[in-house]
Amino acid sequence: MAFDLMVKRSFKVFLGVILVIVGIIVTPLPIPTGLLMIILGLSLLVTTVPQIRQWLKRQRKHYRETSGKLNAVKDKLPAFARKLIEDTDPERP
Q1: For position 16, what pLDDT does the model report?
Q2: CA–CA distance from 47 to each of 25, 28, 29, 84, 85 (Å)?
Q3: pTM of the full predicted structure?
Q4: Residue 69 class from Cβ within 10 Å (0-12 exposed, 13-18 middle, 19+ buried)?
């Protein structure tokens, strides 16, 4: 049972890191696929790595204007992106 959880968590971390790296590489393309990949990767990492969640909270606290814009549009986004924005909101405990 514990081994299954460890394998699942490791797979999520691996997939999240790969998505973020590939997303950064393909960001200059004219289609916004890179941004989607980065958001997917971060949503996987935020759910499995608490340090990533804390780092994103600090970044959003530092860039309050951008954080406010994210909060304003989160209702129009898919569920995974909405969860990422809610989990990293610096105003939430």
Answers
A1: 94
A2: 23, 27, 28, 8, 12
A3: 0.76
A4: exposed
